[in-house]
Structures are given as structure tokens and as C-alpha cells.
Amino acid sequence: MTHDATSAALLFGYAFLSNVALAFLPHEPVVIWYGARLGVWPTSLVASAGTVLAALVDHRVFVPLIERAAARRARIPGLKPGLGASPSLRTDPGPSAPSQGANRPARIFRRWPFAVIALSGLTPLPFFPFKALAFTTGYPLTRYAGAVAARSLPRYALLAWLGAAVRLPAWLFAALFALLLIPSLRMLWPPPPPPTPAAS
After folding, report:
1. Phi, psi of 62 (to 5 degrees)
2. Which of 55, 57, 109, 171 is close enough to 148 for a disulfide, judged by CB 3.0 to 4.6 Å?
3. Could you give the CA distance from residue 67 to residue 62 in angstroms, rounded to a whole number?
4. Which residue ranges make up each domain of the chain?
């Protein structure tokens, strides 16, 4: 196996691990790093392939889990269904006025799901909320994978181009990796216990 093939395999594996499930590994520094070593388009295509594979695995695993949870919820008396991925389970007549603003992102996603996923790659926002919307609304597997590919390729191409155009020192990559890891580690950190009420 040549050096470039080994590097491509490592990049593919990292792109998969940094995008599958609730992955907290940042992919930006790694794509920038490989962009300077593999080239812009090989880096973009390999990283996108790993990301699309992660999307396929996620969809196959999480959508059935959400549907089963919604089906169990629908069988519990006194609970309103409507949170499942299957349209047949969404029988709630509609949101109340205070909840309509909170449901606005979901309404926008249901209207333009492919565009929302694809364009999210041009924002600094984390992908998990968009992934959750796709799964809970039952967005089809093939369209979801296509939208993830449309999201990933230009994003990775831009990052790889940055790595090829601006040669950054290794210490800066390590610092960027650690900086981008902080928000994810904060999500994994247990919340502080609630304050105990003062004794009267």
C-alpha cells in the first residue's frame, strides 16, 4: 500500500468516526491537514465518502429506533403521538400558538429538507440538529445520503484548499483541534447538581 493510499484510508476512517452517531471529534483540522498532503480534490472526495457512509449507518440505526419509540409512545394512554419518524404516527392535530415558534425550524426543514441539509455545510453550526430533524421527520435514506454528500463536498473542498494554499505549522493544527474539541467535551461533561435549598 502506497503512502497516499494509506493516508486516504486513514482520512476515510477518520471522516467516518468524526461524523457517525454522536461523534465529538472535529474534522476541520484533519481535512485542512490532508488538503496540503493529498491535494484538494482527493481529500474532499475521500472525506465526503467517509461522511456519507456515516450518514447511511446513522439512518439505518437511528430511524428504526425512533419509530419504535414513537410506536411505544402511541400505545401509552394519555400521551399524544406526533414525535415519531413515521407519518402514520404523527396524529397530533397541531401545535398550540406558543409552540409554533419553537417548531419553526422543523417546519422549514419539512418544506426544504435537501436544501437545509446541503446549505448547513456553509455555516459554522454543528450538524447534529439537522441530523436529528432528518431522522425524526422520516427523511428517506437515499435523499438524506445525497444531501449529506452535497453538504460535505464543498465544505471539505474549501477546508482542503485552505490547507493547500496556506501551509500551517503542526502546533497550530494541534491547537485548532483542541479548541474545536472543547464544545464537544462540554456536551459530554455531566451537568452540575442543582443547588440545595437553604434550610429555613
Report:
1. -80, -35
2. 55
3. 9
4. 3-89+102-186
C-alpha torsion angle, residues 69, 57, 52, 116 (rounded to 10)? 0
Residues in the chain: 200
The whole-angstrom separation of Cα 13 and Cα 21 is 14
**Residue 162, CB-side half-sphere exposure with 13 Å CA sphere:** 14
Q: What Cα–Cα distance (Å) separates residue 106 from each residue in 51, 116, 143, 172, 176?
A: 23, 11, 17, 38, 32
18 sits in the region (left: phi over 0; alpha: psi -120 to 50; else beta) called: alpha
> Per the structure block, which three cell numbers stand in for 30?
484533519
The answer to whether 45 touches 82, Cβ cutoff 8 Å, is no
Model pTM?
0.73
Place of cell 426543514: 109
